[in-house]
Design goal:
By secondary structure, the protein is α/β, with parallel strands linked by helices. 31% of the residues lie in helices and 20% in strands.
Length: 230
């Protein structure tokens, strides 16, 4: 039997959580729910009208959150010029040395960026990085010629998203400590980016359902009319 916490009980008392809400309304409610002792991450979760087994229906992309993600992102750069990457703000930089550490099990980073030349070597550890969602990819903006710009974009709040095997996508849009306006701006940018990632093979409805939640909160349903254009 699942134990219902006092905070969840108070959340259910605060509003009818089964009722679909407008995006702004949902954000306002989320910000009024009982907080935790840490700064929770806020996410949008979308259930897509996609067949994940079809190769032409892959959904992935990036969004530059106008107010940042609120997260301290540890960036690793695969490059033959580590000094340049470290000067640009990378937390780790190198090539063969980092590849060996990763092969041995080290994974103390959140995002991996690579230069085109370095990718020739990095592909040999794709089986290690790929399952963890850390493999650099041109589509996600993590294979770059301009290392300085790439590191800056990630540190400033660029967030990657990718559909999982069950046709769900989760996109970080900020922290509970953000103002409702800041969360609303980030969420709107995330929805726009998700809409642009719609595969060309999908002609009808793209998003089946959408919810907003923080790390420890219940999910708040977003009214379908908020994304009916996708």
């Amino acid at each position: 039997m699942v134990k219902i916490t006092k905070r969840f009980k108070k959340a259910h008392e605060a509003a009818d959580l089964a009722k679909p809400l407008g995006l702004t309304e949902a954000i306002g409610l989320l910000c009024r729910l009982p907080p935790t002792k840490f700064d929770e991450t806020v996410e949008l979760q979308a259930r897509l009208e996609i067949d994940p087994k079809q190769t032409d229906q892959t959904v992935r992309g990036t969004v530059a959150l106008p107010n940042g993600s609120g997260r301290k992102v540890r960036v690793l750069v695969f490059t033959e010029n580590p000094a340049e990457a470290m000067a640009a703000g990378a937390d780790h930089a190198g090539l063969d040395d980092l590849m060996k550490k990763i092969t041995d099990g080290w994974m103390d980073f959140d995002v991996a960026i690579a230069t085109p030349n370095a990718m020739k070597s990095v592909r040999t550890i794709a089986r290690v990085l790929g399952p963890k969602g850390l493999m650099p990819n041109p589509k996600s903006g993590t294979v770059v010629d301009d290392v300085k710009a790439g590191v800056k974009a990630v540190k400033a709040g660029r967030v990657e998203f990718k559909m999982d095997k069950t046709a769900n996508v989760a996109i970080v849009v900020g922290k509970r400590s953000f103002t409702p306006d800041a969360l609303a701006q980030n969420a709107a940018a995330a929805l726009e980016a998700l809409g642009k990632a719609k595969p060309e093979s999908i002609k009808g409805k793209f998003i089946k359902s959408l919810t907003l939640s923080s790390t420890m909160s219940p999910g708040l349903r977003i009214d379908p009319k908020e994304y009916s254009g996708f």
